[in-house]
Amino acid sequence: xxxxxxxxxxxxxxxxxxxxxxxxxxxxxxxxxxxxxxxxxxxxxxxxxxxxxxxxxxxxxxxxxxxxxxxxxxxxxxxxxxxxxxxxxxxxxxxxxxxxxxxxxxxxxxxxxxxxxxxxxxxxxxxxxxxxxxxxxxxxxxxxxxxxxxxxxxxxxxxxxxxxxxxxxxxxxxxxxxxxxxxxxxxxxxxxxxxxxxxxxxxxxxxxxxxxxxxxxxxxxxxxxxxxxxxxxxxxxxxxxxxxxxxxxxxxxxxxxxxxxxxxxxxxxxxxxxxxxxxxxxxxxxxx
Length: 288
Prior knowledge:
Blueprint (H helix, E strand, L loop, with lengths): L1 H12 L3 H12 L6 H8 L12 E5 L17 E5 L8 H4 L3 E3 L10 H14 L4 E5 L3 H6 L8 E4 L1 E3 L16 E2 L4 H11 L4 E5 L37 H24 L3 E4 L10 E2 L9
Protein name: DUF115 domain-containing protein
């Protein structure tokens, strides 16, 4: 019964604006992995357990980060996401890994993505990059990220159809994500981190409009199809709640995987709506 209900909800979500795009993408990608993509995934296998027993911070881009002293992350294992290289004090802590999920093209053209990736490359230092395999050809065609290790995830499955509580194997196709911190969590668990702390993962847009970042966007400014020029959402509450329900199911799946594998995920975001993980104040991580 529960499995049947999940399938109905998954199909229903496809009727939303983003869902239509996602359905088209899924239909286009109904084929076996290309040899190049398969080789790229195989390169992720040595990452399994690389940081076994360690802790990391996943730094989101929510406005709550403005109140945090990010310089305290210096010397920590940090995973940043999307435009996270624009955070204040980024040069002080320099993330080990940076994640960018599948890109929705529309307001963002291929030319925009190339400029965004060039901007990203100029700020990331020696950070390793995780991209969606959907951008692999673009990176190859324009010779982007020269000299940087770029890894790919095939975001092609669904958490709703994944009953397993095994750690997600990023050397194989993995569930799609509605928000990049979910991607970062999958990567962090595969890398072997046993303590994972979320920062700036607010997810409260449905409670407070307009949408804001912790910094001023550059290349991507005005390219988010989900918000108007003034930051107010382009969708109505009904669609917002449908999307939030899908996202919360992804976080619930991640929480279940963590519990089954003795991994502890904490939410140290000041405020925000995400309630799937134990809360702990940011400053508590640095107290002797």
